[in-house]
Amino acid sequence: MIFLIRHGETLGNASRTVQRPDNPLSPRGFAQAERLARRLSREGIARIVSSDHARAAMTAERLQRATGVPLSLDPLLQERNFGDIRGTPYAQLGFDMFEPDYEPPNGESWPVFHARVDRAWAQVQALAAATEGHLAVVTHGLVCRSLAARHLVIGDGAIVPERWENTSLTIVECPAPWRVRLLNCVAHLADLDTAPRVDSGVV
Predict the structure, then answer these.
(1) pTM value?
(2) Within 10 Å of residue 125's Cβ, how many Cβ atoms?
(3) Low-confidence residues of the chain, pLDDT below 50?
């Protein structure tokens, strides 16, 4: 199986700011990553591949410590590149950066982003086929959404989530047709805290 994971919370998530690649996990994000690692420590994960953005790599490192399996970083799993608007609070943008036709200056359009995710998925499939055990993939909200909408079978009546929770777990059965067994699950965070979630849900 493939364990598809979104990274833990960052201060950028909490403040609703378009994130930079080097944004680290927040204290809450580290706690989420620890919870996820404990949940998956005995699930038969044999290999981890992660985006090299700091927030994903830090999440993956917690899982690697819990499992002791090899971890590699793959730039193809990075979040969509929003170019010059990275570091800007959403409230200051004055437009919806997720609009289908929006192309961020010095960033990726939706078609360019989806094409990169397609290349990432091809590599993930190859890794899963070569791994004796389960493969964990740590990435980002928009990558999860692109994969779910364009490559995974999520079942009758289910819809692709707009919001992917921090450290959410999606379990995908191997091989093709890549059916989703569990979607965007955060059961491991059930009693982490009682504060309202202010995460943007995607980037």
Answers:
(1) 0.93
(2) 17
(3) 195-201
